[in-house]
Write a structure and sequence with these properties.
Helix content: over 70%
Distance between the termini: 46 Å
Number of helices: 4
Strand content: under 5%
Low-confidence stretches: none
Shape: elongated
Mean pLDDT: 82
Largest sheet: none
Number of strands: 0
């Protein structure tokens, strides 16, 4: 990826503001759902979503920094993406996996 392509990426400061805003919204919504239902598992589930947002933000930041420093070898870019996907999927399974039992 060259510098022109990098400029098209979302600036990190804007990304941080969006990630923080979405995280705050998720935290508040999960808190009020838990309080309303009297079931604090939903607050914990919201925490798993926060971890996913943090991982994706960090992966984007790592990728952006590597591009800024002169490019990313393809295998490293693929590794960062794969690592982020594994952590996000694992975290969502951890937070919401027990709900699969309600589908049957």
């Amino acid at each position: 990826m060259n510098y022109e392509q990098y400029k098209k990426l979302l600036p990190l400061s804007e990304l941080i503001v969006k990630a923080f805003s979405i995280s705050t919204l998720v935290l508040l919504v999960s808190f009020f759902i838990s309080q309303y239902l009297g079931d604090w598992q939903w607050f914990a589930r919201g925490g798993s979503i926060l971890v996913c947002i943090g991982v994706l933000t960090a992966a984007y930041d790592i990728k952006g920094r590597m591009i800024k420093e002169g490019g990313i070898p393809k295998h490293i870019e693929q590794t960062v993406i794969l690592e982020a996907i594994i952590v996000v999927v694992g975290t969502l399974v951890w937070g919401f996996g027990d709900l699969i039992g309600y589908l049957y």
